[in-house]
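Thread: Newbie trying to understand structure tokens

Hi all, I'm a second-year student working on a class project, and my supervisor (Dr. K.) asked me to get a predicted structure for one chain before our next meeting. I've only ever worked with sequences, so writing a 3D structure as a token string is new to me. If someone could post the tokens and maybe explain what I'm looking at, I'd be very grateful. Here's the chain:
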Amino acid sequence: MSNNLEFITKLRASGLRPTKQRISICEVLFSPAETFHFSINELVKIIERKTNHKISLATIYNTIHAFKKKGYLKEIAINSDQSYFDTNTTDHHHFYDEQKKELIDIHNSEIGPIKINKTIPGKKIKSVEVLVKVETDY
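---
Reply by user tm_fold:
Sure, no problem. This is what the structure looks like when written as tokens:
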């Protein structure tokens, strides 16, 4: 709980009141030594397992989306029905294992240069992030 002040600061910066439930969400998201990927439904289970708290889905959903909007989390859309969130907000790429429903980081050093030959008038490229879908080779 030594990070409570940091969590309260993140919550307030995201426009959220620092409630006990939201601080528990922060503990799960921002305390691990390594970054991780999750869906909202997976996060519900992780929170219940790690904190023994039952937090409403609406509170988790609203907190995650406020953190995403503020830049504390990154959303990776797998398809129109499925999104994952990443606690690593740096530009990087991903493998998506379709059988395991799992995202795996690919670091920039593991991908060669990417060349985009098309431009959109009035737009500039903000970032390029590759999502490589994989399946078990039988």
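A couple of things are worth pointing out once you decode it. The CA atoms of residues 11 and 18 lie 6 Å apart. The beta strands are 37-38, 74-79, 82-86, 93-97, 102-106, 131-134. Feel free to ask follow-ups in this thread.
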